């Protein structure tokens, strides 16, 4: 039987290796997709069950008390690295004026072994879920926090915070600022990044599509709208997903596609409240300050990561500069939003992010989170 020349055998073997490699890769990708779909289905089922239980616990009787609470909702990756700063903040408050809820990874418990502040003991949600950046699980976690907080009828204002947020003023000033206003503070503007897809039609119409900061402060009626939504959230679950399961810093295709992908936490609340005709009940701005690294190289300009405050750039000059901001300009609408609370001019920001431990320690040591303005104006 004639044998193939060694050169041809090498070519055939090379082609077989390519075929085997491609087949293996496709199998791995298929398994990944099946696992991801399975996890997504499990998360959806858990969320639906948890929200149903929470909804049944929300009191129907209108609050008639004279001491409304401000609910602090922390969205944490695990623990709260700045708990020592928040401990000082809450110590200056009457405990009847606030409540605390933390969404962390499933199974994580806040106790003496995991936090330095007793204010956070056992404040974690028992029905927390795994959260993935760029997926609907982020807004699912926000809804769980709101649902838990709504169970207490005294909670009349709700502020969402990250684990790297810090207060810029003392509790008294922040409490009066938010509670005295009859409106929610929701950063909301027209989106020019082409993240809307016609696949969302007719549930979500393009003219109602909005964008804004994830960090919101809500009145109770708006919190209920978000928790009770069964129409808009499923659309975000279906169409707002990461483009590719790859490291964005290493794959230019991911970066290119991601610009056209809907980021749920930047659109959901803004779009939902707009669809419900509630824009006139909102101050269309956030009360949480975030700054972006404008000096970054062009290739890094779309990295979507805010500037981090360290002990070097969180001194009196930087903090007082944030506190002096009294308006925000929205380029997509050619709109200047002058900051007001209960129709009175106020500083725009009550909180700021992203702060390291070193930066938080400097804020405390230099007394930079005390009120430095006339608080009687609220």
Automatic annotation (TrEMBL):
Residue ranges of coiled coil: none
Entry superkingdom: Eukaryota
Transmembrane segments: 12-32
A Pfam family matched in the record: Branch
Membrane-topology annotation of the record: Single-pass type II membrane protein
Main location: membrane
Keywords in alphabetical order: Glycoprotein, Glycosyltransferase, Membrane, Transferase, Transmembrane, Transmembrane helix
Subcellular localization, as worded in the UniProt entry: Membrane
InterPro entries, alphabetized: BC10-like (IPR044174), Glyco_trans_14 (IPR003406)
A molecular-function term among this protein's GO annotations: glycosyltransferase activity
Any GO CC annotation of this UniProt entry: membrane
PANTHER family: CORE-2/I-BRANCHING BETA-1,6-N-ACETYLGLUCOSAMINYLTRANSFERASE FAMILY PROTEIN-RELATED (PTHR31042), OS01G0695200 PROTEIN (PTHR31042:SF70)
Protein name: Core-2/I-branching beta-1,6-N-acetylglucosaminyltransferase family protein
Species: Arabidopsis thaliana (Mouse-ear cress)
UniProt lineage: Eukaryota, Viridiplantae, Streptophyta, Embryophyta, Tracheophyta
């Amino acid at each position: 039987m004639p044998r193939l020349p060694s050169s041809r055998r090498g070519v055939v073997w090379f082609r077989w290796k390519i075929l085997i490699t491609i087949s293996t890769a496709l199998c791995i990708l298929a398994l990944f997709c099946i696992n991801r779909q399975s996890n997504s289905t499990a998360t959806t089922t858990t969320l639906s069950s948890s929200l149903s239980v929470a909804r049944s616990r929300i009191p129907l009787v209108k609050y008639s008390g004279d001491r409304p609470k401000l609910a602090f909702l922390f969205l944490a990756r695990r623990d709260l690295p700045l708990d020592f700063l928040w401990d000082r903040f809450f110590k200056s408050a009457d405990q009847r004026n606030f409540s605390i809820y933390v969404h962390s990874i499933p199974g994580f418990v806040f106790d003496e072994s995991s936090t330095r502040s007793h204010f956070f003991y056992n404040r974690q949600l028992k029905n927390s879920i795994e959260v993935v950046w760029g997926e609907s699980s982020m807004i699912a976690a926000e809804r769980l926090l709101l649902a838990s907080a709504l169970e207490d009828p005294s909670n009349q204002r709700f502020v969402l915070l990250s684990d790297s947020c810090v207060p810029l003023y003392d509790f008294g000033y922040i409490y009066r600022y938010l509670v005295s206003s009859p409106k929610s503070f929701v950063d909301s503007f027209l989106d020019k990044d082409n993240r809307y897809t016609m696949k969302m039609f007719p549930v979500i119409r393009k003219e109602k599509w909005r964008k804004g900061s994830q960090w919101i402060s809500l009145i109770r009626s708006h919190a209920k709208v978000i928790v009770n939504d069964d129409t808009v959230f499923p659309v975000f679950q279906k169409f707002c997903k990461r483009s590719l399961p790859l490291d964005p810093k290493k794959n230019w295709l991911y970066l290119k596609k991601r610009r056209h992908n809907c980021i749920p936490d930047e659109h959901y609340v803004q779009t939902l409240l707009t669809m419900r005709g509630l824009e006139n009940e909102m101050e269309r701005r956030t009360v949480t300050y975030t700054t972006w690294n404008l000096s970054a190289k062009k290739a890094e300009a779309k990295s979507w990561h805010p500037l981090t405050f360290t002990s070097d750039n969180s001194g009196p000059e930087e903090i007082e500069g944030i506190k002096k901001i009294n308006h925000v300009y929205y380029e997509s609408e050619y709109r200047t939003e002058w900051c007001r609370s209960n129709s009175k001019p106020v500083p725009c920001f009550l909180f700021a992010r992203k702060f390291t431990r070193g930066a938080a320690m400097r804020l405390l040591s230099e007394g930079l989170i005390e009120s430095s303005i006339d608080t009687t104006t609220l």
